[in-house]
């Protein structure tokens, strides 16, 4: 893991996803002192192509007298590379065999297989990225929506790091003034307590603003799991199809058509949403139906949000009430479907004054925008497409910033209690250390282990 890494070693990994018959290009990446020497052993560039930094060479990768692949080679000399080491990339034909053979040749020449996230870890250790930027690289790779990708790019550009460094600098300035009074009490005027309080309150307010982005960041990264449940033939599959604008689920007039959980991936207001269309929940008449219903209940229990769907033409039934009792403690929305089939325009009355209710007619694509708005409201997400997504902290960063926020509040309490200046510095140092953990200025090997083990190999 990261603490055992020797940066003198040259590392290699496949840097692109490899799927049979998918993808036209596969990249094998080398980084380290011997990267260029290994490349020259394996790559033949015909003619007089110069081996210069940031140039692309055309040629063949060979093993002894056998040509392994026709490829391009990209050379990036230190420090103008992702890792700030010498980096070489072989751009091979896609698929499995070419990149696997090139990888094996690099290993035979003395390179070591890279650990997960080791290229980005070296970029961090060599000062090219701070820790927030490194984590944003992983977020960009795993982004499931344009908003998530945009937030990750802002992180890579240092938007979060800039805010955190400013806060840490303000804390250091306050600490310096306090320590100066401790060390040179006879030579300096008394410290201005009101000014210190004002500065600490400003830091506290700024920390609170950044912490507010934690939920937004979690939604952007992991999204929501939404389960559509209800009695048979209330229109759950029609609702999924209307929502996803595709025929993901079979729709007929026969009750019980859906026998298993059908999944669909959607983006709503910038949030990735996994929608689960479940089998109708009722008294099963055979083993297959029983299994489907059990899976439906499991999906509902694991979901972040449940859409309990009922038939407007039937109204609220005892069976609906029984289902409601099972999910009422889970975030939920009551979807009254098939309102287009009502004899009049009056909505169905429900005995649920505290549950959000949306009326839809899935068969004619009516009510989907209102349903999406209700989902965003239930998730406390608002419209992320209109929100400022420059900053969205993750759980690790939120934990460190919460520690800093608590420490700043404790400093304010210490001042209010009229304790000596020495006591002011204790929690202020804790806040400074916690802020440093966010950017990596204060970091432990075990923390690096935890962070970079979540990266893919080759990044």
Task: Please provide a written account of the structure.
The chain is α/β, with parallel strands linked by helices and 459 residues long. The chain has 15 helices and 13 strands. The strands form two sheets. It has a seven-stranded mixed β-sheet. Strands 9-10-8-11-12-13 form a six-stranded mixed β-sheet, with helices on both faces. Strand 4 and strand 5 form a beta hairpin. Helix 6 runs antiparallel to helix 14 and helix 7 packs antiparallel against helix 13. About 5% of the residues have low confidence.
Keywords:
459 residues, alpha/beta, seven-stranded mixed sheet, six-stranded mixed sheet
DSSP helix count? 15
Number of strands: 13
Average pLDDT: 84
Sum up the overall morphology in one term: flat
Unreliable spans: 248-252, 254-260, 281-286, 382-387
* Span between termini: 15 Å
Strand percentage lies at 15-25%
Major beta sheet, strand line-up: 3-4-5-6-2-1-7
Helix and strand pattern:
EEHEEEEHEHHHHHHEHEEHEHEEHHHH
**How would you name the oligomeric state of the polypeptide chains in this document?**
single chain
Question: Roughly how many Å is the radius of gyration?
Answer: 29 Å
The percentage helix is 40-55%
Structural class: alpha/beta
**Biggest sheet, in brief?**
7 strands, mixed
């Amino acid at each position: 893991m990261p603490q055992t890494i020797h940066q003198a070693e040259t590392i290699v990994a496949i840097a692109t996803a490899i799927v049979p018959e998918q993808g036209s290009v596969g990249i094998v990446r080398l980084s380290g002192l011997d990267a260029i020497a290994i490349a020259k052993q394996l790559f033949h560039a015909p003619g007089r192509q110069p081996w210069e930094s940031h140039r692309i060479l055309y040629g063949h990768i060979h093993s002894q007298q056998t040509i392994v692949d026709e490829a391009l080679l990209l050379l990036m000399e230190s420090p103008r590379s992702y890792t700030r080491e010498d980096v070489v990339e072989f751009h091979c034909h896609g698929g499995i065999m070419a990149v696997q053979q090139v990888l094996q040749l690099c290993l035979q020449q003395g390179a070591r297989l890279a650990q997960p996230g080791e290229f980005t870890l070296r970029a961090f250790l060599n000062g090219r990225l701070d820790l927030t930027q490194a984590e944003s690289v992983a977020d960009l790779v795993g982004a499931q929506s344009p908003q998530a990708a945009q937030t990750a790019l802002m992180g890579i550009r240092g938007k979060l790091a800039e805010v955190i460094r400013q806060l840490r600098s303000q804390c250091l300035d306050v600490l310096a003034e306090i320590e100066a009074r401790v060390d040179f009490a006879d030579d300096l005027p008394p410290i201005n307590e009101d000014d210190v309080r004002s500065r600490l309150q400003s830091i506290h307010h700024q920390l609170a603003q950044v912490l507010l982005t934690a939920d937004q960041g979690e939604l952007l990264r992991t999204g929501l799991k939404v389960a559509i449940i209800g009695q048979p033939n209330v229109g759950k599959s029609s609702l999924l199809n209307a929502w996803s604008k595709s025929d993901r689920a079979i729709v007929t007039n026969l009750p019980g058509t859906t026998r298993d959980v059908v999944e669909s991936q959607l983006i709503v207001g910038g949030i990735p949403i996994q929608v689960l269309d479940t089998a109708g929940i009722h008294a099963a008449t055979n083993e297959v139906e029983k299994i489907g219903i059990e899976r439906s209940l499991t999906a509902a229990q694991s979901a972040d949000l449940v859409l309990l769907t009922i038939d407007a033409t039937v109204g609220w039934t005892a069976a609906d009430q029984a289902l409601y009792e099972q999910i009422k403690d889970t975030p939920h929305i009551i979807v009254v479907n098939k309102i287009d089939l009502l004899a009049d325009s009056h909505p169905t009355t429900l005995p649920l004054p505290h549950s959000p209710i949306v009326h839809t007619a899935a068969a004619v694509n009516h009510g989907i925008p209102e349903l999406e708005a209700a989902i965003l409201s239930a998730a406390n997400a608002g419209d992320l497409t209109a929100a400022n997504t420059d900053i969205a902290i993750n759980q690790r960063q939120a934990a460190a910033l919460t520690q800093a926020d608590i420490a700043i509040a404790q400093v304010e309490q210490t001042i209010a209690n009229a304790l000596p200046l020495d006591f002011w510095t204790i929690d202020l140092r804790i806040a400074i250390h916690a802020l440093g953990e966010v950017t990596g200025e204060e970091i432990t090997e075990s923390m690096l282990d935890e962070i970079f083990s979540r990266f893919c190999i080759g990044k």
